[in-house]
Recover the amino acids of this structure.
């Protein structure tokens, strides 16, 4: 079925267009213009002056059952999961391929030390004891459908919970194993000095901005 949406402001993610109607078929835009692009056989949607824009990306979620379907109701068409257990990840990855569901990308289980964050919420799950564990840990996440690796680093000691953390040699080993497999690496940090440390280890993305002070100049240079 071909659908035409009229009477909308069209924002493509970069700029606002002068056109006020969009026609699409089989998920592909086939025409942008005025009301005249509406064909008699089309399904017609009057936008009532609203704004039509690309689907939103929620760049930090932790999955719950039904998340891919619920997300679409808020205009989110892609979700990036930052740590969930494999059975739920598999379920949501499958659901994310269905029409009317948000696409899902996931790290599956993140890399953390034995008893480290977020053990209080998700355990049991596999831990990383040291650099030697990195290749197998990354391979297991790939088998679970991960699109990237999540590492959790707290400068050797988590700030708020006095929980253990992986060390920097382990972060480096995980980064190397992930990059060798073609996966980007996202790091959970809280302190500015930890942000610098993980970026210097080769981490690609920070999952949180530092909470103790402004982002150091080194991060602006290295990222």
């Amino acid at each position: 079925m071909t659908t035409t949406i009229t009477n909308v402001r069209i924002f493509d993610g970069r700029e606002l267009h002068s056109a006020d109607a969009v026609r699409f078929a089989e998920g592909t835009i086939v025409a942008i213009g005025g009301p005249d692009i509406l064909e008699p056989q089309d399904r017609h949607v009057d936008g009532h002056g609203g704004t039509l824009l690309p689907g939103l990306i929620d760049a930090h979620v932790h999955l719950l059952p039904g998340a891919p379907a619920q997300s679409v109701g808020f205009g989110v068409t892609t979700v990036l999961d930052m740590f969930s257990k494999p059975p739920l990840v598999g379920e949501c990855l499958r659901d994310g391929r269905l029409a009317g569901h948000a696409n899902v990308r996931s790290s599956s289980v993140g890399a953390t030390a034995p008893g480290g964050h977020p053990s209080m919420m998700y355990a049991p799950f596999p831990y990383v004891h040291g650099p030697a564990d990195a290749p197998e840990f990354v391979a297991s996440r790939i088998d679970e459908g991960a699109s990237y690796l999540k590492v959790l680093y707290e400068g050797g000691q988590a700030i708020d919970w006095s929980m253990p953390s992986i060390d920097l040699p382990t972060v480096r080993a995980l980064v190397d194993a992930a990059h060798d497999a073609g996966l980007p690496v996202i790091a959970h940090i809280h302190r500015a000095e930890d942000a610098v440390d993980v970026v210097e280890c080769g981490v690609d993305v920070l999952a949180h901005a530092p909470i103790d002070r402004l982002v150091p100049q080194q991060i602006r240079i290295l990222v």
